[in-house]
């Protein structure tokens, strides 16, 4: 989401959340920024999913190494010998290079937008230096495709990964159903999911801000890539319903005082949700059917 997107999806560090402030003021601020974002993104298109580009070479290399480490940690994964599919890799395919260097048998990426076609070559040079071997982009498969059908993407895969991507998908149940077709029996998917508002000025203080608006008003703020507002329980239910044995790994949890303050100002469908405190989390699931 250009400058509105988080630098990472799930990650450590609790933001300084508002408690006892004016809910009306945050409602108005979120609406104003959301409408401005909608106009900007509709005019310019979806270009930069991170608040920095691969021209910031060192920062970008640190980022992809951290993403892979988080997958391995949260999913208790061994990538050795795995045929990997990543959804929504963003502006580079560095995670694929890292996974291949750690023994993955193959790596394929699928994205809705051709964001990784103009990656700064210096990024891959520095990543190769950090990995101790040159990055062979010829081993990396890349598809610009449509979700959930993903035409052109052919399995079977043993491992499906994503980082701060699924919250932008329009049809998560359909995507999980398609992944169940593409993944070999016993295969695993591990998705870092960011359930916080992606507007940087509001995100640290009122992370549930996007849940304050009724559906019709949120649609006025829509653009390709806007967060879908699903909560942790929604992702879990979608995975189970499509043949996955799934669990959630909490990453960033809001303090009870913030959740209690925010709840009464949320749109009615979210007011009684039991998982509001789960701001970022990882869905880990094994294909059972």
From TrEMBL:
Superkingdom: Bacteria
Gene Ontology molecular function: methyltransferase activity
Biological process according to GO: methylation
Name of the featured protein: Class I SAM-dependent methyltransferase
Origin organism lineage: Bacteria, Bacillati, Actinomycetota, Actinomycetes, Streptosporangiales
Keyword NADP: no
Keywords: Methyltransferase, Transferase
CDD domains: AdoMet_MTases (cd02440)
Pfam families: Methyltransf_23
């Amino acid at each position: 989401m250009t400058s509105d997107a988080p630098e990472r999806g799930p990650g450590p560090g609790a933001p300084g959340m508002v408690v006892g402030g004016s809910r009306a003021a945050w409602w108005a601020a979120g609406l104003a920024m959301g409408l401005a974002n909608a106009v900007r993104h509709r005019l310019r298109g979806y270009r930069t999913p991170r608040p920095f580009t691969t021209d910031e070479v060192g920062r970008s290399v640190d980022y992809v190494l951290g993403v892979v480490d988080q997958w391995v940690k949260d999913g208790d994964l061994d990538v050795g010998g795995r045929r990997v599919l990543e959804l929504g890799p963003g502006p580079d395919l560095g995670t694929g290079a890292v996974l291949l260097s750690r023994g993955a048998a193959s790596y394929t990426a699928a994205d809705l937008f051709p964001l990784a076609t103009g990656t700064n070559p210096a990024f891959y040079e520095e990543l190769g230096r950090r990995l101790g071997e040159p990055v062979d982009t010829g081993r990396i498969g890349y598809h610009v495709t449509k979700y959930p059908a993903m035409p052109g993407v052919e399995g079977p895969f043993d491992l499906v990964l994503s980082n701060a991507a699924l919250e932008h998908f329009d049809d998560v149940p359909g995507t999980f159903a398609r992944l169940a077709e593409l993944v070999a029996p016993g295969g695993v998917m591990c998705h870092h999911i960011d359930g916080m508002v992606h507007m940087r000025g509001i995100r640290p203080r009122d992370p549930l801000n996007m849940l304050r608006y009724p559906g019709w008003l949120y649609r006025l703020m829509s653009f390709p890539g806007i967060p879908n507002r699903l909560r942790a329980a929604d992702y879990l239910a979608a995975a189970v319903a499509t043949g996955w044995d799934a669990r959630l790994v909490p990453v960033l949890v809001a303090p009870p005082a913030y959740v209690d303050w925010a709840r009464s100002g949320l749109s009615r469908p979210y007011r009684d949700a039991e998982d509001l405190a789960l701001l970022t989390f990882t869905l880990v699931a094994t294909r059972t059917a």
